[in-house]
Amino acid sequence: MIQKFNISIINYQLFLLLLCSCNIGSRPATQEFENSQWRGEGRNGVYNETGLLKVWDDEGPLLLWKYEGLGDGYTSAAIAGEKIYITGLNEETLILFVLDLNGNLLNKKEVTREETDSYPGPRSTVNVNAGKLYIYNAFGTLVCLDEKTLEEVWSKEILTDFVGDSVEWTVAESPLIVGEKIFVTPGGKEHNFLALNKNTGELIWSSPGESTQPAYCSPQYIGDQSVPVVVTCTADYIVAWNADTGEKLWSFPQKNDYHVHPNTPLYHNGMILSTSGYGEGAVMLRLKDGGKAVELVWKNKEMDNQMGGFVKVGDYAYAAGHVNKFFFCVDWNTGETKYKDKEIFRANVISADEMLYCYSERGIMYLINPNPDKFDPVSSFKVTQGTGSHWAHPVIHRGVLYIRHGDALMAYKIQ
């Protein structure tokens, strides 16, 4: 009886081992990689974090570490696979820095030349996707590196190869990756917007769009319509294409005095919000016919966020003004200004765990309760490390707030 029982156990263990072996053999051979991109997973500035502090000490949250020596630049941290990727300027060269999550330098690499005259340093955040790094410099050079070895896989001179139109303050777009395509805006007459194969750099499609200059805008993807939509802003328009075919679906006029539209359009449930500084303010569009058409819902000329981004929390949009020097709360559905407050303006805004994080050009980081009835700041602290303008958008990852200020990257514990 005892012998029979032992045999049964052995047979059952062999069965489990065989079953596990079959399961292992049926798994895809390709390794899963963690991805990271501009303003979070949905490019909407909202980070999927929980358990974050609802109030900070008077001195601010605990500074875990700082890394100095990045050089000039305005790019955000891209965090994937236990590593931080960020770019900076050394003389005339764009440098990629690879740090671990404790702020230790793991590697750095000279990638390409970079802007040294008009606001020196890189502007485009690294896109980490499926084991590769995509880096775009101020002159339109798009480089793909192997994430593990940092060896170059391919590169394209976007403005040269596709007869792009140069812009006054050089390129600031963070290209978008969806599936096997990487989308970028040369802004030329013929190749106004295009899709490349992310693995080879070969052209998949291009479109003349509205044949207007690029506007520093990073594209947005909309995948819940009857056609896949990719939308961006060029000098005078909000424009959308079929992401699969390159067919232009629609465009909507949005002008300002300097053709500057750096903010990625914010999408939610069939609605697209775009803001513009220098007079145009905010415009809300509604998709129709499965994404193939669009209609105006409302305009709000007061909320004129220039390049700091904006977020949707609940039924409200929050943004800091530019010419109109206020912090705004606007009803998402109607465009009504719920309040505007003088304390914050010209600032970057992100959100996590139902709170707002607002990094102002004056170097103050605010924690704000998103109260639609009144401006409701909870805590704040001054960012004293680093150099130059406070323009880089902050990032939240695993309970840590990352702030880049020119030469320095700081990590604060907020969980």
List descriptors.
disordered N terminus, mainly beta, 415 residues, 7% helix, 42% strand
Task: Compose a concise summary of this entry.
This protein is mainly beta and 415 residues long. It is built from two helices and 33 strands.
Number of helices: 2
CATH architecture: 7 Propeller
The total number of structural domains is: 1
Fill in the CATH topology.
Methylamine Dehydrogenase, Chain H
Q: Order of strands in the sheet with the most strands?
A: 1-27-28-29-30
What is the helix content? under 10%
Radius of gyration: 23 Å
Structural shape: globular
- Largest beta sheet, briefly? 5 strands, mixed
Quickly give the structural class.
mainly beta
User: How much strand content do the residues show?
Assistant: 35-45%
Overview of this protein structure:
The protein is built from two helices and 33 strands. It has 415 residues and is mainly beta. It has a single domain (42-413), classed as 7 Propeller (Methylamine Dehydrogenase, Chain H), CATH 2.130.10.10. The termini are far apart.
Question: Can you lay out the helices and strands and say which pair or pack?
Answer:
Blueprint: H1 2-26, E1 46-47, E2 62-68, E3 78-80, E4 83-90, E5 93-100, E6 105-113, E7 127-129, E8 132-136, E9 141-146, E10 152-157, H2 158-161, E11 176-178, E12 181-184, E13 193-197, E14 203-207, E15 220-222, E16 229-233, E17 237-242, E18 248-253, E19 266-268, E20 271-276, E21 281-288, E22 293-300, E23 311-313, E24 316-320, E25 327-331, E26 337-341, E27 347-352, E28 355-360, E29 364-368, E30 377-382, E31 395-397, E32 400-405, E33 408-413
Parallel strand pairs: 1-27
Antiparallel strand pairs: 2-33, 3-4, 4-5, 5-6, 7-8, 8-9, 9-10, 11-12, 12-13, 13-14, 15-16, 16-17, 17-18, 19-20, 20-21, 21-22, 23-24, 24-25, 25-26, 27-28, 28-29, 29-30, 31-32, 32-33
